[in-house]
Amino acid sequence: MSRLPPRAARAGFAVALPAAALLAAIGAGGCGRPAAPPAPEQVYRFRLREDPPTLDPALVTDNLSEAITAGVFRGLVAMDPESLEVVPAVASSWTVSPDGLLYTFRLRPVARFQNGRPVTADDVAWSFRRLLRKDTRSPRRWLLEPVAGAIDFAEGRAADVTGIAVTAPDTVTLRLERPFAPFLGMLTMSGASIVPREVYDDPAKPYLRAPVGCGPFAVVRWEQANVIEMKAFDGYWGGRPAVDRILVRIIENRTTALEEYRAGGLDSLDEVPADPGPDLAADVHRYPFIGVGYIGFNLGLAPFKGNAALRKAFNYAVDKEYLWNVLMPGGNIPGRGIIPPGIPGYDPDLPGYPRDPAKALSLLAEAGYPGGRGLPPITLWVNTSEDNRRIAQQIQADLKKVGVSIAIKEVDWAAYLQAVEGTAAVPGQAQMFRFGWYLDYPDADAVLRLQLHSRNIGPPGNYFRYASPEFDRLVDEALAMTDPQARAGNYRRAERIAVMDDAVWLFLNYFESATLFKPYVKGIVHTPLGEFRIPLERLVIERPVAGAKPAA
User: Fold this and answer.
1) Domain range list for the chain
2) Residue 480 has what pLDDT?
């Protein structure tokens, strides 16, 4: 996509021209010929179901926040949205030592923050230390834990991170404790974004409402529960985006959002109706999405704590084929496990848990609750969404058929995350919870270790409080493997432990993305990273000009 150069008039600046240049400009228009009209402003409008919980990249763990921060921030490297390869971002190049321990990054001389200041290697080092600092409370500090000295610094045992060094104003090095195969992929995540110290070291924390990054768009307005406005950043190192302004409209109700899309108030919509009808059929874009959906069991609370038979019984009771082929067709694939298709380590032979009421009843008896009798009250938590509500109600109905009664509790996203995550020491209050996890980098590590390793219990990602020494060993061993087939084998074995032995989740689906886009929205990248990671800087809005006549 060709990017448009900065336009002073559009940005609101007055430009003084020398007299000769002014005469030349007048003469170029011909005698009395009017100047060409300015290009119309390009505005792209999309919808979020609710306000993002945070716009601080160090704290982001969800796709609502990522929908905004992905346009505002950049790190040293990025994930190409089509090939899923790691590509240069703020770093124009990097090298890795033969032993796989030393990474050297050279920064682009043109990279600037949205406050106009150049990005330096000191900013990179400070941003990484901020991510690790205990007072930041980042649930994504594990991104940098492979760096030498990172854990000691994060836990207050060292004054600095020995593995982070600035060797020149434009050069930073990261030295790892040991080889770590997915390290570059992890650096593409929002937690590894580079931020300006003078903004993010301010105790007043203005960045919570007005974030500052070095990405293609800057946040200029946030009206809670209404709209977030972003504007193109003229100084973006990748070239000014074609889209001048982005309006992110907060519309909770799905029906209201669809009506707004039909009326022309939205240019895209993330929730596609099951039957879009002939008027919208051409607007539907479907594409793969490397993610997995499930109901999480809280293994820190009764009745799921220490009771794998009960968790297996719930799995056999739920009809995933009905869920995705009848109740909600066209957007998901019935799931058998954790690693989604297309990711190295995906196991097509994993049996999973097809619906089998007889097995469910047998396992309920084994768990100590024959026919569901004696089960304490169980609540399934969901965040506010019509789809989540329908899924929860169907699971409730399936479990009722084997004698299990559950309640459904629906809350907003921020309250939901708090109930699900808990802390490292204390479980969240949600016994069961509807969740989806998209892979930030295309590696089984991005779902197995992040969600299920015992080191990540609590906010870092293991909300289920799952702990298996053999699972941990297999996943840890895979990190240093350089043979892709051997790594995939480790991940398959680890997945079988978590799925077939321990039934850590109620396994529901592998995701597909479906999004409505108006026909005048061009430059759409159908990325497996998900609809909220479609690069906004590549979009071009070609709305028909009012009153224009079609070409002959």
Assistant:
1) 73-201, 287-511
2) 87
Please give the distance of CA 6 from its chain centroid, rounded to a whole number: 30
pLDDT at 323: 95
Question: Strand pairing partners for 268?
Answer: 517
Phi–psi pair at 407, nearest 5 degrees: -100, 160
User: Measured between alpha carbons, how far is 335 from 18 in angstroms, rounded to an integer?
Assistant: 67
Give the Cα separation of 212 and 206 in Å (integer).
10
Give the residue with greater pLDDT, 251 vs 545: 251
CB–CB of 374/310 below 8 Å? no
Q: What is the pLDDT of residues 407-426, one digit of tens each?
A: 999 999 889 999 999 999 99
pLDDT at 104: 98
Query: Average model confidence (pLDDT) for the chain?
Result: 90
User: What does the alpha-carbon distance between residue 515 and residue 273 come to, in Å, rounded to a whole number?
Assistant: 10
According to DSSP H, which parts of 220-352 are helical?
254-263, 308-317, 320-322
d(CA 224, CA 222): 6
pTM reported for the whole predicted model? 0.76
Domain 287-511 has CATH 3.10.105.10: yes
Instruction: Retrieve residue 240's tokens.
Output: 């000014």
- Tens of pLDDT, residues 3-19: 232 222 222 222 333 33
Q: How far apart are CA 406 and CA 393, in angstroms?
A: 10
Q: Exposed, middle or buried by CB within 10 Å (0-12, 13-18, 19+), for 356?
A: middle
| Common-topology check for domains 73-201 and 287-511 | no
Q: How many CB atoms lie within 10 A of CB 133?
A: 15
DSSP SS3 for 226: coil
| CA-wise closest residue to 154 among 128, 187, 190 | 128
The CATH class of 73-201 is: alpha beta
